[in-house]
Amino acid sequence: MADVVIASQAKPQFREASAWDQLKHNRNWLGFWFMLPAMAFLIFFLAYPLGLGIWLSFTDTRIGRVGQFIGTENYEWLWDDAIFWLSVFNTLLYTFVASALKFAIGLYLALLLNENMPFKAMLRAMVLIPFIVPTVLSALAFWWIFDSQFSIISWSLKHLGLISQNINFLGDTTWARICVIFANIWRGVPFVAITLLAGLQTVSPSLYEAATLDGATRWQNFRYITYPLLTPIIAVVMTFSVLFTFTDFQLIWAMTRGGPVNATHLMATLSYQRAIIAGQLGEGAAISSAMIPFLLAAIMVSWFGLQRRKWQQGENND
Amino acid sequence: MSSVHIRDVRKSFGNFEVLHGVTIPIEDGQFVVLVGPSGCGKSTLLRMLAGLENITSGTISIGERVVNNVQPKERDIAMVFQNYALYPHMTVADNMGFSLKLRSAGSDEINKRVKRAAEILALTPLLDRYPRQLSGGQRQRVAMGRAIVRDPQVFLFDEPLSNLDAKLRVAMRTEIKELHQRLKTTTVYVTHDQIEAMTMADKIVVMHDGIVEQMGTPLELYDKPENQFVAGFIGSPAMNFLKGHVRSNGVATFEGPNGVKLPLKSAPTASDGKPAVYGVRPEHFTIADDGAEAEIVVVEPTGSETQVFAKLGGEQVVAVFRERHQFNPGDKVRLKPDPSLVHLFDEGTGKRLNA
Predict the structure, then answer these.
(1) Hey, are the CB atoms on B89 and A228 less than 8 Å from each other?
(2) I need a labelling partner for B52 at 20 to 30 A (CA). Which of A30, A297, B81, B123 fits?
(3) Contact between B130 and A309 using a beta-carbon 8 Å cutoff
(4) Nearest CA to B285 among B312, B267, B253?
(5) Do residues B62 and B4 touch, judged by C-beta distance below 8 A?
(6) CATH (one of 3.40.462.10, 3.40.50.300, 3.30.360.10, 3.30.465.10) for B4-226
(7) What pLDDT does B270 receive?
(8) Residue B335 binned pLDDT confidence (cut-offs 50, 70, 90)
(9) Per-residue CA distances from B31 to B3, B21, B44, B157, B218 (Å)
(10) pLDDT per position as a tens digit, A87-99
(11) Is A311 in the B-facing interface, judged by CB distances under 8 Å?
């Protein structure tokens, strides 16, 4: 009797692991299962629209009509389109000027807010205001501020006796460009300032003390300590800033719709106008796709900018 | 090199005074250690000497010059920080040469001086590395190298060894002392570790709650602590304190807790029945037939010596023996303090009573 009992316990039932068991327990498959939801999101909402956009740019699709593959005809057409080239110029100008000023002002504000001063917490919160107001709302406010008849700026200057006639802010090509760039800077500075401030706060105060004892002036403290230690953050924040500015749509559309005489048309707004308003989906998609090389270039610049700093890596070789 | 004079220096943060009039003379070439528990004001004093904190009142002079209103960079001092404060984006060589670069020294001059400092500290193979690629002890040496390169009047050290592991700390202690013997630069060193203070200092300044409790050579402080705080702070394991009364009728003795009789070499004048604190260092106990009876609680052998915790008159005391006694918990032994080495303190003020 006893033998039988022991024998049955000593022989547990082994079975071959099935393929399904492996899918459930293999580490690599497990990782795959966990990645699946994120991958699905990225594929459906990012990769698919991007692929579709690029495909559309090679067709003559219009709203209400399935298009046919026409090769690079859309791009050839755009190559000879002066308005397209104007929008490219506008976008580059807009991105370059706005990003440079956002960086300068943002860095200045960050350095200022990093100092000890009264109401520091409140001032830091206030800097964020332009960032939390919905873009369209702030664009509408700017639309009124720059209105040709009711502009508060023109009104003030007139009452100060500095001008005799209203300035046609959004009606004049140069003024319109200045105005939209100004609005973009106003909106974008908080992001740059707060991110750089976060970066500044990671710099150990004892480094400044050491540098002060080493004989550094305030400027040398910035030049030799703050700026080099901030470069990784600057690279990231400016990449994002450039990408957001380059693809800006809302501000322009709410303020000028690309006018006057296409002077503020960016590639994004031109694409929308051609594709959605005019119904030429293929051509609009081609304009959008033409932004990709510029954006890739911007990413590459910051990527290589981030790579170079050896001091950040902790590798222990000679 | 230079002497340093700290005269009646006070420091307040708002209405809160952290230093209550501190006077410390430091001779040219001396190695002075400021030691005390956290919050005693020793680091604040060092930072005032460096020029990183304002001086509320009093004067600090380096050499003949009062430096109260002199910018840190004009004071000709170099400081080693607790976290080393190495510039993470600069190589070891650049870290060490930074101060010279700011003073627009020529690159030949910078190279020469960095190389010399690197040789002194055995850093030559590491000159091209970044701080991240160094071990704790190497970073510590770079921080010192940065100070040496400047060839300053005074070196300041702010708890430089507290981030190192125990073994490295002992090694670096010797290294810093050796460096000082070689360079003979006036050094002010802050630590909370009394062993560091004892082993390194020419002169120890014991600070507590913003005042100087005592200053003197390590052995002066050990042999004749001026008050109960210094007596308890210097020495490891710490001195035993027993409360009781002085008896000076006939043979001077000390009546400890629960009437236990302890020997005194001589009683302070007119002190019969005076309440006092009897201090005896663990290493000054011997086992003797005429000692006071004590019951052993815990025995901790370390090899070279044995620490014995015992109840003496109901109070726990610790004794250290270099001989290997066979003790077990619960054993009764007779502990006798060496009467010529005991300390007597006023119970109220903590001041030393015996000569």
Answers:
(1) yes
(2) B123
(3) no
(4) B312
(5) yes
(6) 3.40.50.300
(7) 65
(8) very high
(9) 11, 22, 18, 11, 12
(10) 999 999 999 999 9
(11) yes
Residue A128 token pair: 């964020």
For every residue of B257-293, DSSP letters joined together read GGG-EEE-S-PPTT-TT-EEEEEE-GGGEEEEEEEEE
| Inter-chain touch A215–B103, beta carbons under 8 Å | yes
CA pair distance B342, B244, nearest whole angstrom: 14
Q: Give Cα separations from B45 to A241, B82, B217, B222, B234 (angstroms).
A: 46, 15, 20, 24, 21
The backbone torsions φ and ψ at residue B108, rounded to the nearest 5 degrees and listed phi first, read -65, -45
Distance from CA of A116 to the nearest CA of B (A): 15
Phi, psi torsion values for B62, nearest 5 degrees:
-115, 120
CB contact, 8 Å: B238 with chain A? no
For the cut 80, the answer to whether the pLDDT of residue A8 exceeds it is no
The residue in chain B having the minimum alpha-carbon distance to the alpha carbon of residue A318 is B129
DSSP strand pairing (B211-216 vs B240-247): unpaired
pTM of the model: 0.79
Give residue-wise pLDDT tens across range B4-46. 999 999 999 988 999 999 999 999 999 999 999 988 999 999 9
Whether the Cβ atoms of residue B314 and residue B256 lie closer than 8 Å to each other: no
Domain B237-346: assigned CATH number: 2.40.50.140
Q: What is the signed CA dihedral for B71, B72, B74, B75, rounded to 10 degrees?
A: 120
Mean per-residue pLDDT over chain B, rounded:
90
For residue B89, the chain A residues in CB contact (below 8 A) are 228-229, 309, 311
pLDDT tens digits, one per residue of B289-322: 888 899 999 999 988 999 999 999 889 999 999 9
Which helix or strand (DSSP H or E) is residue A250 part of? helix A250-255
For chain B, the structural domain boundaries read 4-226, 237-346
Specify the pLDDT at position A312: 67
Q: Where are the domains positioned within chain A?
A: 82-308
Look at B88 and A309 and tell me if their CB atoms are within 8 Å.
no
Model confidence at B78: pLDDT above 50 = yes
Q: Which fold has domain A82-308?
A: MetI-like fold (1.10.3720)
Looking at the DSSP bridge assignments, the partners of residue B286 are: B336
Contacts of B88 in chain A (CB under 8 A): 229, 311-312
CB contact under 8 A, A213 and B50: yes
Mean pLDDT, chain A, integer: 86
Q: Nearest CA to CA, how far is B44 from chain A (Å)?
A: 14
